[in-house]
TrEMBL record:
It comes from the Bacteria. This is Universal stress protein. Residues 2-140, 151-297 form the UspA domain. CDD domains: USP-like. It comes from Turicimonas muris.
Amino acid sequence: MKILLPLDGSVYSKKAINYLSHLEDIKKFTNTVFLVNVQKKIPSSIENKLKNGVVEELQNAESRAILKPAKKKLEEAGYKVKTKVCFGRATENIVKVSKEIKPDLIIMGSHGRTPVKGLLFGSKTSSVLASTKAPMLVLRKESQYAEDRMRVGICIDGSEYSNAAIKYAQQHMQLFGKDPIFYLINVITPHSGLIIPEVSAFGAPAMTKEEFEREQRIPFDEKVEPIYEELRNKDIEAKVVLLKGDPSEEIAKYAVENNLSLLILGTHRRGAFTSMMMGSTAMRIGSACHLPLLLVHHVTEEVEESKNKDDTSSER
């Protein structure tokens, strides 16, 4: 397993270092942790006024101050670590490094603002999320690693996005420590109470509240039962959770009230602007709670083929 960890010296990136250093079980499955620091380019008008080599010396010193203690801490925790310094725009360089090393996971620390106030995860984290197909573990300042058994929530709706999240979790169980508990979470639309029980607006018999909720549960049971059984066959404790209401609000509320350690969500891989806005359930859940979020992309064959064509064209 390869892990990419961009660092900028902020309290958020320090949180990511602390979190990773406490993930005991993942160490034996990790080949390398790649630490990347991106230094902004100094405007040429300013650089020309300075002595030759001064800017480079200052930037290298700043990078060492960020990377050296992080490398030491992770090596002491048992990881093999490599460092890299890039120059220019942070997002572009992080995405470029991600394409080069093809990590199994990107870990980034980020603020926990609301989508409108701060584009939720911050412009860098949101842009990287939108520009790479690698799964991303997003940590906020308030995120805490689990001291004992991890209580892991997986959001399931039967879509290709949640299926990708489930598949990734099953392939990377080492991320969740010893004896994790998985909560398989789905949210259904509650009965509005506006339908007259005896007759619908079209003259046909309307569903009762019980019938309405039973119909909604059928596809959930069909999707979750195989996952539940597979986890149980591997002696992994799992619980089925069915909530009612707005998905983002109910999932965030349940996660906090039940002291979950981590939430796993499948998400689209659309443009940066779309990913930052409030249309995504994953984004809204992130704004409503400060738990670590493991975001797993589902990349369709059509999108991947288009991306490969674009990459090939840009190289010409």
